[in-house]
Amino acid sequence: MSKLLEIKDLFVQYNTDTSVVHALNGLNITLEKGENLGLVGETGAGKTTLALSILKLLPNKVGQVTSGSIVYEGQDLVGFSEGEMRKIRGERISMIFQDPMTSLNPTKTVGLQVREVLDLHFNQLSSAEKQRKVDALFEMVGIPASRQHEYPFQFSGGMKQRIVIAMAIIAQPELILADEPTTALDVTIQAQILELMRRLQKEFNTAMILITHDLGVVVAICSKVAVVYSGQTIEMGTIEDVYSRKENHPYTEGLFKCIPDLKTESERLTPIIGSMPNPENLPSGCKFYDRCSYRMDLCAAKEPEYITQGTHSIKCWRFAVKWKKAEGLK
Hints:
Radius of gyration: 21 Å
Strand content: 15-25%
Shape: globular
Protein backbone atom coordinates (compact mmCIF):
# COMPACT_ATOMS: atom_id res chain seq x y z
CA MET A 1 0.00 0.00 0.00
CA SER A 2 1.10 3.58 -0.63
CA LYS A 3 0.81 6.45 1.80
CA LEU A 4 -2.33 8.56 1.44
CA LEU A 5 -2.15 10.89 4.45
CA GLU A 6 0.66 11.85 6.81
CA ILE A 7 0.08 14.27 9.66
CA LYS A 8 3.28 15.31 11.37
CA ASP A 9 3.78 17.37 14.56
CA LEU A 10 0.43 19.13 14.12
CA PHE A 11 -0.33 21.96 16.54
CA VAL A 12 -3.77 23.62 16.54
CA GLN A 13 -5.06 26.26 18.91
CA TYR A 14 -8.31 28.16 19.48
CA ASN A 15 -7.92 31.84 20.29
CA THR A 16 -10.69 33.29 22.46
CA ASP A 17 -11.07 36.74 23.97
CA THR A 18 -9.72 35.53 27.30
CA SER A 19 -7.40 32.60 26.57
CA VAL A 20 -5.62 30.33 24.11
CA VAL A 21 -6.83 26.70 23.99
CA HIS A 22 -4.15 24.25 22.82
CA ALA A 23 -6.28 21.61 21.11
CA LEU A 24 -3.62 19.63 19.21
CA ASN A 25 -0.09 19.45 20.55
CA GLY A 26 2.21 17.68 18.12
CA LEU A 27 -0.21 15.03 16.84
CA ASN A 28 1.12 12.41 14.38
CA ILE A 29 -0.72 9.84 12.26
CA THR A 30 -0.17 8.06 8.95
CA LEU A 31 -2.77 6.41 6.73
CA GLU A 32 -2.29 4.16 3.72
CA LYS A 33 -4.62 4.01 0.72
CA GLY A 34 -7.68 1.87 1.44
CA GLU A 35 -6.83 1.61 5.15
CA ASN A 36 -9.21 2.06 8.09
CA LEU A 37 -7.80 3.94 11.09
CA GLY A 38 -9.68 4.19 14.38
CA LEU A 39 -9.02 7.40 16.32
CA VAL A 40 -9.97 6.90 19.97
CA GLY A 41 -9.81 8.98 23.12
CA GLU A 42 -11.86 10.87 25.67
CA THR A 43 -14.14 13.78 24.83
CA GLY A 44 -11.95 16.85 24.40
CA ALA A 45 -8.86 14.89 23.31
CA GLY A 46 -8.77 16.69 19.94
CA LYS A 47 -10.26 14.05 17.62
CA THR A 48 -12.84 16.28 15.93
CA THR A 49 -10.35 19.15 15.76
CA LEU A 50 -8.08 16.88 13.74
CA ALA A 51 -10.83 16.12 11.21
CA LEU A 52 -11.73 19.79 10.88
CA SER A 53 -8.05 20.64 10.42
CA ILE A 54 -7.69 18.15 7.57
CA LEU A 55 -10.59 19.77 5.71
CA LYS A 56 -9.62 23.31 6.79
CA LEU A 57 -13.00 23.79 8.48
CA LEU A 58 -11.71 25.21 11.76
CA PRO A 59 -13.74 28.20 13.00
CA ASN A 60 -12.65 31.28 11.07
CA LYS A 61 -10.36 33.64 13.01
CA VAL A 62 -10.63 31.41 16.09
CA GLY A 63 -9.05 28.08 15.18
CA GLN A 64 -5.65 27.98 13.52
CA VAL A 65 -2.89 25.53 12.66
CA THR A 66 0.20 27.03 14.29
CA SER A 67 2.73 24.45 13.05
CA GLY A 68 3.06 21.01 11.54
CA SER A 69 1.95 19.49 8.24
CA ILE A 70 -1.05 17.64 6.77
CA VAL A 71 0.37 15.94 3.70
CA TYR A 72 -2.32 14.43 1.48
CA GLU A 73 -1.05 12.56 -1.60
CA GLY A 74 2.22 14.48 -1.42
CA GLN A 75 0.67 17.95 -0.96
CA ASP A 76 0.59 19.88 2.32
CA LEU A 77 -3.02 20.98 2.83
CA VAL A 78 -2.01 23.52 5.50
CA GLY A 79 -0.92 25.94 2.77
CA PHE A 80 -3.95 25.41 0.53
CA SER A 81 -6.30 28.32 -0.23
CA GLU A 82 -10.06 28.11 0.28
CA GLY A 83 -10.54 27.72 -3.47
CA GLU A 84 -8.12 24.80 -3.61
CA MET A 85 -9.81 23.12 -0.64
CA ARG A 86 -13.25 23.36 -2.28
CA LYS A 87 -11.95 21.08 -5.04
CA ILE A 88 -10.92 18.51 -2.43
CA ARG A 89 -13.86 18.58 0.00
CA GLY A 90 -16.60 16.18 -1.02
CA GLU A 91 -14.80 14.87 -4.10
CA ARG A 92 -11.51 13.56 -2.67
CA ILE A 93 -12.07 13.84 1.10
CA SER A 94 -15.55 13.56 2.61
CA MET A 95 -16.80 13.83 6.18
CA ILE A 96 -19.61 12.10 8.01
CA PHE A 97 -20.51 14.49 10.81
CA GLN A 98 -21.35 13.46 14.35
CA ASP A 99 -25.10 14.01 14.55
CA PRO A 100 -27.24 12.88 11.59
CA MET A 101 -30.19 14.79 13.06
CA THR A 102 -28.48 18.14 12.41
CA SER A 103 -26.31 17.22 9.38
CA LEU A 104 -29.16 17.50 6.88
CA ASN A 105 -30.90 20.61 5.60
CA PRO A 106 -34.55 20.37 6.75
CA THR A 107 -35.78 22.51 3.81
CA LYS A 108 -34.43 20.30 1.01
CA THR A 109 -35.36 16.78 -0.05
CA VAL A 110 -32.76 14.16 0.80
CA GLY A 111 -32.29 13.33 -2.88
CA LEU A 112 -31.30 16.89 -3.72
CA GLN A 113 -28.83 16.92 -0.83
CA VAL A 114 -27.14 13.73 -2.00
CA ARG A 115 -27.07 14.95 -5.61
CA GLU A 116 -25.56 18.31 -4.59
CA VAL A 117 -22.07 16.74 -4.42
CA LEU A 118 -22.36 15.67 -8.07
CA ASP A 119 -23.62 19.12 -9.08
CA LEU A 120 -20.60 20.74 -7.43
CA HIS A 121 -17.85 18.40 -8.61
CA PHE A 122 -19.06 16.52 -11.70
CA ASN A 123 -20.38 19.07 -14.19
CA GLN A 124 -19.33 16.77 -17.03
CA LEU A 125 -22.14 14.36 -16.13
CA SER A 126 -25.58 14.85 -17.65
CA SER A 127 -28.61 15.32 -15.43
CA ALA A 128 -29.80 11.82 -16.27
CA GLU A 129 -26.41 10.30 -15.36
CA LYS A 130 -26.41 12.10 -12.03
CA GLN A 131 -29.91 10.88 -11.28
CA ARG A 132 -28.97 7.28 -12.07
CA LYS A 133 -26.04 7.53 -9.64
CA VAL A 134 -28.32 8.93 -6.91
CA ASP A 135 -30.94 6.22 -7.50
CA ALA A 136 -28.33 3.46 -7.35
CA LEU A 137 -26.72 4.83 -4.21
CA PHE A 138 -30.01 5.08 -2.31
CA GLU A 139 -30.66 1.42 -3.05
CA MET A 140 -27.07 0.57 -2.07
CA VAL A 141 -27.43 2.12 1.40
CA GLY A 142 -30.76 0.37 1.96
CA ILE A 143 -33.25 3.15 1.21
CA PRO A 144 -35.76 2.83 -1.66
CA ALA A 145 -34.90 5.33 -4.41
CA SER A 146 -38.56 6.38 -4.41
CA ARG A 147 -38.02 8.01 -0.97
CA GLN A 148 -35.41 10.49 -2.20
CA HIS A 149 -38.13 13.10 -2.72
CA GLU A 150 -38.94 13.14 1.00
CA TYR A 151 -37.55 15.49 3.66
CA PRO A 152 -35.25 14.66 6.59
CA PHE A 153 -38.03 14.82 9.20
CA GLN A 154 -39.70 11.87 7.49
CA PHE A 155 -36.77 9.55 8.32
CA SER A 156 -35.59 7.84 11.51
CA GLY A 157 -32.14 8.48 12.98
CA GLY A 158 -30.67 5.36 11.41
CA MET A 159 -32.11 6.22 7.99
CA LYS A 160 -30.76 9.76 8.25
CA GLN A 161 -27.32 8.35 8.96
CA ARG A 162 -27.60 6.19 5.84
CA ILE A 163 -28.40 9.32 3.83
CA VAL A 164 -25.41 11.16 5.33
CA ILE A 165 -23.19 8.19 4.40
CA ALA A 166 -24.60 8.32 0.85
CA MET A 167 -23.65 12.00 0.66
CA ALA A 168 -20.13 11.17 1.78
CA ILE A 169 -19.48 8.35 -0.70
CA ILE A 170 -21.36 9.39 -3.85
CA ALA A 171 -18.22 11.00 -5.32
CA GLN A 172 -16.18 7.89 -4.39
CA PRO A 173 -13.62 9.89 -2.37
CA GLU A 174 -10.22 8.51 -1.46
CA LEU A 175 -10.69 9.36 2.22
CA ILE A 176 -13.70 9.53 4.54
CA LEU A 177 -13.56 11.20 7.96
CA ALA A 178 -16.31 9.64 10.10
CA ASP A 179 -16.88 11.61 13.31
CA GLU A 180 -18.61 9.26 15.80
CA PRO A 181 -21.12 8.16 13.13
CA THR A 182 -23.06 5.82 15.45
CA THR A 183 -23.13 7.81 18.70
CA ALA A 184 -26.77 8.93 18.50
CA LEU A 185 -28.08 5.50 17.45
CA ASP A 186 -29.23 2.48 19.44
CA VAL A 187 -27.10 -0.67 19.51
CA THR A 188 -29.00 -2.58 16.81
CA ILE A 189 -28.89 0.34 14.35
CA GLN A 190 -25.22 0.94 15.22
CA ALA A 191 -24.38 -2.59 14.06
CA GLN A 192 -26.27 -2.07 10.79
CA ILE A 193 -24.52 1.25 10.08
CA LEU A 194 -21.09 -0.21 10.85
CA GLU A 195 -21.73 -3.15 8.54
CA LEU A 196 -22.88 -0.75 5.81
CA MET A 197 -19.76 1.41 6.20
CA ARG A 198 -17.48 -1.63 6.13
CA ARG A 199 -19.15 -2.99 2.99
CA LEU A 200 -19.07 0.34 1.13
CA GLN A 201 -15.48 1.02 2.17
CA LYS A 202 -14.37 -2.31 0.70
CA GLU A 203 -16.45 -1.85 -2.44
CA PHE A 204 -15.01 1.58 -3.24
CA ASN A 205 -11.54 0.95 -1.68
CA THR A 206 -11.91 4.15 0.34
CA ALA A 207 -9.60 4.91 3.25
CA MET A 208 -11.32 5.99 6.46
CA ILE A 209 -10.51 7.68 9.75
CA LEU A 210 -13.16 6.59 12.23
CA ILE A 211 -13.37 8.97 15.19
CA THR A 212 -14.88 7.37 18.27
CA HIS A 213 -14.58 6.85 22.01
CA ASP A 214 -15.84 3.27 21.68
CA LEU A 215 -13.04 0.69 21.51
CA GLY A 216 -15.55 -1.97 20.43
CA VAL A 217 -16.53 0.01 17.33
CA VAL A 218 -12.87 0.31 16.32
CA VAL A 219 -12.14 -3.41 16.47
CA ALA A 220 -15.27 -4.11 14.41
CA ILE A 221 -14.28 -1.99 11.42
CA CYS A 222 -10.62 -0.84 11.57
CA SER A 223 -7.26 -2.42 10.83
CA LYS A 224 -5.22 0.20 12.69
CA VAL A 225 -5.82 2.33 15.77
CA ALA A 226 -4.41 5.61 17.11
CA VAL A 227 -5.06 6.60 20.73
CA VAL A 228 -5.26 10.35 21.27
CA TYR A 229 -4.77 12.11 24.60
CA SER A 230 -4.60 15.85 25.20
CA GLY A 231 -4.05 16.56 21.52
CA GLN A 232 -1.28 14.00 21.03
CA THR A 233 -1.09 10.51 19.53
CA ILE A 234 0.17 8.55 22.53
CA GLU A 235 -0.14 5.09 20.95
CA MET A 236 -0.57 3.80 17.41
CA GLY A 237 -0.42 0.39 15.81
CA THR A 238 -2.39 -2.41 14.22
CA ILE A 239 -5.43 -3.80 16.01
CA GLU A 240 -3.28 -6.77 17.03
CA ASP A 241 -0.57 -4.46 18.45
CA VAL A 242 -2.95 -2.49 20.64
CA TYR A 243 -5.74 -4.94 21.46
CA SER A 244 -3.46 -7.82 22.45
CA ARG A 245 -3.03 -5.82 25.71
CA LYS A 246 0.50 -7.17 26.14
CA GLU A 247 2.15 -3.73 26.08
CA ASN A 248 0.08 -0.54 26.10
CA HIS A 249 0.51 3.08 27.02
CA PRO A 250 -0.78 3.55 30.60
CA TYR A 251 -3.71 5.60 29.24
CA THR A 252 -4.69 2.87 26.75
CA GLU A 253 -4.38 0.34 29.56
CA GLY A 254 -6.80 2.47 31.59
CA LEU A 255 -9.28 2.62 28.70
CA PHE A 256 -9.35 -1.18 28.48
CA LYS A 257 -9.95 -1.45 32.24
CA CYS A 258 -13.07 0.70 31.80
CA ILE A 259 -14.63 -1.97 29.57
CA PRO A 260 -16.79 -4.64 31.30
CA ASP A 261 -15.22 -8.11 31.13
CA LEU A 262 -17.73 -10.97 30.92
CA LYS A 263 -15.12 -13.43 32.21
CA THR A 264 -14.25 -11.48 35.36
CA GLU A 265 -16.52 -10.83 38.36
CA SER A 266 -16.19 -7.38 39.88
CA GLU A 267 -18.50 -4.98 41.69
CA ARG A 268 -17.26 -1.91 39.82
CA LEU A 269 -15.30 -0.95 36.72
CA THR A 270 -11.86 0.61 37.19
CA PRO A 271 -12.03 4.20 35.92
CA ILE A 272 -9.00 6.34 35.09
CA ILE A 273 -8.54 8.72 38.02
CA GLY A 274 -8.59 12.46 37.44
CA SER A 275 -9.16 14.25 34.16
CA MET A 276 -7.19 15.57 31.20
CA PRO A 277 -5.05 18.66 31.85
CA ASN A 278 -6.52 22.08 31.15
CA PRO A 279 -5.75 22.78 27.46
CA GLU A 280 -5.28 26.45 28.36
CA ASN A 281 -2.41 25.56 30.71
CA LEU A 282 -0.67 22.35 29.69
CA PRO A 283 2.15 20.78 31.74
CA SER A 284 5.65 20.74 30.27
CA GLY A 285 6.25 17.00 30.64
CA CYS A 286 3.99 14.04 29.94
CA LYS A 287 0.37 15.18 29.65
CA PHE A 288 -0.79 11.98 31.38
CA TYR A 289 1.60 12.37 34.35
CA ASP A 290 -0.97 13.26 37.05
CA ARG A 291 -3.15 10.23 36.22
CA CYS A 292 -0.42 7.63 35.64
CA SER A 293 0.40 4.88 38.13
CA TYR A 294 3.78 4.23 36.43
CA ARG A 295 5.03 7.84 36.50
CA MET A 296 8.69 8.71 37.09
CA ASP A 297 10.43 12.00 37.82
CA LEU A 298 11.56 12.13 34.21
CA CYS A 299 7.91 12.12 33.06
CA ALA A 300 7.15 15.42 34.80
CA ALA A 301 10.35 17.09 33.62
CA LYS A 302 10.45 16.25 29.92
CA GLU A 303 8.06 15.52 27.07
CA PRO A 304 8.18 11.76 26.25
CA GLU A 305 9.57 10.64 22.92
CA TYR A 306 7.96 8.19 20.51
CA ILE A 307 9.43 4.70 20.58
CA THR A 308 8.59 2.14 17.89
CA GLN A 309 8.77 -1.62 17.63
CA GLY A 310 7.67 -2.86 14.24
CA THR A 311 4.22 -1.36 13.58
CA HIS A 312 3.64 -0.39 17.22
CA SER A 313 4.48 3.13 18.50
CA ILE A 314 4.09 4.48 22.05
CA LYS A 315 4.81 7.96 23.42
CA CYS A 316 5.95 7.09 26.94
CA TRP A 317 9.25 7.22 28.87
CA ARG A 318 8.51 3.84 30.42
CA PHE A 319 8.57 2.16 27.02
CA ALA A 320 11.38 4.35 25.70
CA VAL A 321 13.55 2.93 28.49
CA LYS A 322 12.17 -0.63 28.33
CA TRP A 323 12.25 -1.14 24.56
CA LYS A 324 15.63 0.51 24.08
CA LYS A 325 17.07 -1.67 26.83
CA ALA A 326 15.66 -4.76 25.12
CA GLU A 327 17.34 -3.70 21.86
CA GLY A 328 20.63 -2.94 23.61
CA LEU A 329 20.36 0.81 22.95
CA LYS A 330 21.17 3.65 25.29
